[in-house]
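A brief tutorial aside. Many learners find it easier to grasp structure tokens once they have seen a single protein encoded end to end. The record that follows does exactly this for NADH-quinone oxidoreductase subunit F. Read the sequence first, then the structure, and try to relate runs of similar tokens to stretches of the chain.
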Amino acid sequence: MTLTSFGPANRIKRSAETHPLTWRLRDDGEAVWLDEYQAKNGYAAARKAFAEMAQDDIVQTVKDAGLKGRGGAGFPTGVKWGLMPKDESINIRYLLCNADEMEPNTWKDRMLMEQLPHLLIEGMLISARALKTYRGYIFLRGEYTTAAKHLNRAVEEAKAAGLLGKNILGSGFDFELFVHTGAGRYICGEETALINSLEGRRANPRSKPPFPAAVGVWGKPTCVNNVETLCNVPAIIADGVDWYKSLAREGSEDMGTKLMGFSGKVKNPGLWELPFGVTGRELFEDYAGGMRDGFKLKAWQPGGAGTGFLLPEHLDAQMYAGGIAKVGTRMGTGLAMAVDDSVNMVSLLRNMEEFFSRESCGFCTPCRDGLPWSVKLLRAIENGEGQAGDIETLLGLVGFLGPGKTFCAHAPGAVEPLGSAIKYFRHEFEAGIAPISAAVPPLARPIVVGA
């Protein structure tokens, strides 16, 4: 994994003024522990929040800064915080960090937890102060063993320094923080499935409402935020709303910076902290270096396996939620994948849908039955055994599993790349349809959305 500097060809160094998330990173990739973190102004924002700011002022500052969730949904963080109850008599509240980073082609949270564990802890400490939560959990993907080791060490360092535990910084505020490793389920990235898993239940999403802010962990008010989201909080508190907003490029409706990346057969695959509003072309050409010699860009996904495919001509889109929406898909996690011209889209989609089908919790029928059905059809087309009407059936499934049709967002994310692949590369799917034979009985009427 690499993380290069802010400018092309590494000409510009990371700094606190331009890289709130990554300026403290070590060049050797080792973790930044407490002494070094504090020497680099670590926990200064927490001290400011505890000494100079009322709890509601912290919430309002985050809201005014325009911070949005960095896990993929992009919900305004300050608005989510504002949903927590104001009733002071409710003295048991929880703060959960969603670190179950299982989106294929996404590794941004891993880098932050492995190399800057105290940045996440400081972000959670300030957030806990704002939300009046007395206990926090980092729900960590079980396979992230190095992150678990580093986070646990950082938690112990913070406890020993009086930054976690009882009477933090002499304020009378108590906050305990625990690292909880999951059992390897993609669906735990959905916040209510995460809550169920934390409680020891099956990781099924819950019905909403009630939302976690009202009824969350063990029935108590709970706020769930992504790793990268929480890591933005210290810089906002330390340097203010106007500075944070100024980081984004002109035209972007999203504020601040974002960890973005590119993988695939590019010359310089990696991860970079960039301002919202950079174009996909800058990310692809200036940072990822374009395609390796002998390969041509065929398609790309802007933010993980659950986002729709785009074509090379879409690279001029700005990388923020609204900019990517203009070309027909979602920003997602912001870590893009290049698909080269040697890849068959049917095979790629079959592989993706197998993953999403396997990771379905099985709670609702469209997802439980629809995703395996798509895999069966894609496998037949991949082997040249598709039948007339199979492509229409796949498009029907894309409609029936779309937003608002299933219990949670797992299925809509699963079929978004499928729909876009058929849209742009239908000829590859048609190539897998076998010639009509008298030995093959006619198909039943294919599924057509709205029929």
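Self-check: The radius of gyration is 23 Å. If you spotted this yourself, you are ready for the next section.
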